[in-house]
Write a structure and sequence with these properties.
Elements: H1 2-9, E1 18-21, E2 26-28, H2 29-43, E3 54-57, H3 61-73, E4 78-80, H4 87-96, E5 100-103, E6 113-116, H5 119-128, E7 143-147, E8 155-159, H6 161-173, E9 189-192, H7 199-210, E10 214-216, H8 223-227, E11 233-237, H9 239-248, E12 259-263, H10 270-279, E13 284-290, E14 294-299, E15 309-313, E16 318-322, E17 335-340, E18 359-360, E19 363-364, E20 368-373, E21 378-384, E22 388-391, E23 394-397, H11 398-406, E24 413-420, E25 426-433, H12 440-450, E26 458-461, H13 475-487
Parallel strand pairs: 1-10, 3-4, 3-5, 5-6, 9-10, 9-11, 11-12, 12-13, 25-26
Antiparallel strand pairs: 1-2, 7-8, 13-14, 14-15, 15-21, 16-17, 17-20, 18-19, 20-21, 22-23, 24-25
Helix pairs in contact: 2-3, 6-7, 9-10
Length: 488
């Protein structure tokens, strides 16, 4: 179904359109779809095993997309897993539980049948392989992934092709990706630092492909070289990715008009926004949404960059702020944010043991606190009802990190709390009560065993951990105290 959707969208484009572009070569759409049929032909035997989910681990960006489209043509649900077989891979694998893995390396440590699809395999298949001419409609999910941004426990979610296509159309209708261009001008290229192993990243890249935008195959270490070309570009970044890009720019770098930046996975601190408008571009969009809800609100230069604002709620989305009894609160009153939209995953798409827990009377509760400004439907997010915190884009459960710290000998007590750096990006600090010396690097390693994407920690020694009346750490007090100290 993805192939048909792409072809239907590209009726107005000629064959010169480049779908993917790397440093060494590029691929036009027709070439990509022929390669898809070759990969589908090579994998057709998988259908005899009737797998419900096939996992994909493939570092080569282009090859990975070939496999996704090929499995879709075979009517088989796919799940993309991280490239590195570290903590995140292990946890996602255990949540998704694929029946079969297509891998660019042998996964001997995992009890699952795996088929090797390395560079040699693709070279053989694409140079002399047959072409699969049939097409099977997937009667279940097209994609399966992990959602971890609205609860302390990551969840397995599925999405049908129809649902994904609907969300892609929503992305395009929001004009979020700024694909509009003057006649005769070259369309922008897209670089996404958000992986397509998550549903949001997959849908954004698909939206670019459908819109006729070239997807640039690169990683963040090569972004500076791409920026140096000074061609029209759309960057999809988390706040932490953006901070990295700002850090590698030349001191003489100035803002340009042909660059659009879209921030996903967290709010954009005022300090970082100011630097971005000076050194990169003034065309900045910040997206609020979750894996489970799709796009909810967009903040851009049409709105004041107010504290805690995540932008205007999109026209097809309903958002309310309610009290603990579900009563709608007045403008400006803080309460629980709830969302209703056709882009919200229906309860039956939640495939884990806690499916449907976030739904009440048809409303999805992401766990965020906030308030609304009714005049322009502007939404403000002020915090959460749990201990999840975003360090630059990825979510982390501070209670789990607290447990790791407190179990580390000879620490007596400890707590993790967020502190903004010079650009306003939250970073993890660890307050410890300890009378003896200990190996801070070893503690950091233990914490990264749980969250490999956790930024570097900063340790501080205290006499006691301040706590609230219910016994929880007073993280706000610790954050405010360190923030004030850093200002001096």
């Amino acid at each position: 179904m993805f192939e048909e959707f792409l072809l239907q969208s590209h009726k107005s484009f000629d064959d010169k359109y480049v779908l993917f572009e790397g440093f060494s070569r590029s691929w036009r759409m027709r070439e990509f779809l022929v390669d898809v049929k070759k990969v589908a032909h090579a994998l057709a035997g998988i259908r005899e095993q009737a797998p419900s989910i096939v996992g994909i681990k493939c570092r080569n960006f282009y090859h990975h997309w070939l496999v996704i489209f090929a499995l879709d043509q075979l009517g088989i649900a796919s799940a993309s897993l991280p490239n590195d077989t570290g903590v995140t891979f292990h946890e996602n694998f255990n949540i998704i539980q694929p029946d079969l893995m297509l891998c660019d390396e042998v996964l001997s440590a995992y009890r699952v049948k795996n088929i090797l699809i390395n560079e040699r395999w693709f070279s053989d298949i694409l140079s002399k392989g047959g072409v699969f001419l049939d097409r099977y409609k997937n009667t279940s999910f097209a994609r399966v992934s992990v959602a971890s941004g609205t609860g302390v426990t990551a969840e397995k979610i599925g999405a049908t092709a129809e649902y994904i296509i609907q969300n892609i159309n929503n992305i395009l209708h929001s004009n979020l990706l700024s694909f509009s261009h003057k006649k005769g001008e070259k369309k922008p290229q897209l670089i996404s630092c958000i992986g397509f192993d998550i549903l949001t990243g997959f849908q954004i890249i698909m939206a670019a492909m459908v819109a006729g935008v070239t997807v640039e195959i690169t990683d963040r270490t090569h972004i500076a070289a791409v920026l140096a070309r000074n061609t029209p570009l759309v960057l999809i970044l988390s706040p932490l990715h953006l901070e990295y890009v700002i850090g590698i720019l030349s001191p003489l770098s100035t803002a340009r008009d042909n660059l659009n930046i879209i921030i996903v996975g967290g709010s954009l601190p005022e300090q970082l926004r100011k630097i971005t408008t000076q050194k990169l571009t003034k065309k900045i969009h910040v997206v609020y949404g979750t894996e489970e809800t799709g796009l909810v609100a967009v903040q851009n230069d049409k709105l004041d960059w107010s504290m805690n604002s995540v932008g205007s709620v999109l026209p097809w989305v309903e958002v309310e702020v309610v009290d603990e009894n579900g009563h709608i609160l007045a403008e400006g009153q803080e309460g629980s944010v709830r969302i209703k939209s056709s882009s919200v995953l229906p309860p039956q798409f939640f495939l884990g043991p806690k499916a449907g827990e976030k739904f009440q009377n048809g409303w999805f509760y992401p766990g965020d606190r906030g308030y609304l400004k009714f005049s322009n439907r502007e939404l403000f997010i002020t915090g959460r009802y749990d201990d999840l915190v975003s360090f630059g884009g990825d979510k982390f459960d501070l209670r789990l990190l607290d447990d790791i710290v407190k179990s580390f000998s000879p620490i007596i007590d400890g707590s993790v709390f967020p502190v903004p750096d010079q650009n306003g990006i939250l970073k993890p600090y660890v307050a410890v009560v300890c009378e003896d010396n200990f190996d801070g690097d070893e503690l950091s390693r233990k914490m990264h065993e749980k969250y490999e994407n956790l930024p570097s920690i900063t340790l501080i020694w205290v006499n006691e951990i301040p706590r609230l009346s219910d016994g929880r750490p007073n993280r706000k007090l610790m954050t405010d105290s360190i923030s004030e100290t850093l200002k001096k």
